UniProtKB/TrEMBL annotation:
This is Twitching motility protein PilT. Residues 4-118 form the PIN domain. InterPro entries: PIN-like_dom_sf (IPR029060), PIN_dom (IPR002716), PIN_Sll0205 (IPR041705), TA_system_RNase (IPR052919). Gene3D superfamilies: 5'-nuclease (3.40.50.1010). It comes from the Bacteria. It holds the Pfam family PIN. It comes from Deinococcus aetherius. SUPFAM superfamilies: PIN domain-like.
Length: 129
């Protein structure tokens, strides 16, 4: 299974692994699963870090490709098809980062790993908790 990490999951995996539920940690460590990071993760962390809301993200932003490599993860870029899919999603939830991650998961056939209730509220989102 290909698993796209929500940004908070990426932060927990790399900086605060004790926050991950043990069942989720086991799934992420399962060699049968491919971890996927998104350009959206870097974009969200950089915006929030710059605004002073995510100071702990600095080491992840210094060399995002190295972070991906340390996790054995592929990095997914944002493509026009992702943007078109994001526009078609229900607009009740307006967070652009969440919308794009859901759109990427749908468009690429990925499972989005998140514990964020606002993301899990998308009825069509392929979520893994």
């Amino acid at each position: 299974m290909r698993l796209l990490l929500d940004t908070h999951i990426l932060l927990w995996v790399t900086l605060k692994p004790d926050l991950l539920p043990s069942s989720l940690r086991a799934r992420l460590l399962d060699p049968e699963h491919q971890i996927i990071l998104s350009a959206v993760n870097a974009w969200e962390m950089s915006i929030k870090h710059h605004a002073g809301k995510l100071p702990e993200a600095a080491p992840l932003l210094t060399d995002f490709p190295a972070v991906a490599a340390s996790l054995g993860a592929e990095v997914l870029n944002i493509m026009p098809a992702h943007a078109i899919r994001a526009e078609a999603l229900d607009w009740a939830h307006r967070d652009p980062f969440d919308r794009m991650l859901v759109a990427q998961a749908l468009e690429e056939g990925l499972r989005l790993v998140t514990l964020d209730e606002s993301v899990t509220s998308y009825p069509q989102a392929p979520i893994l908790r």
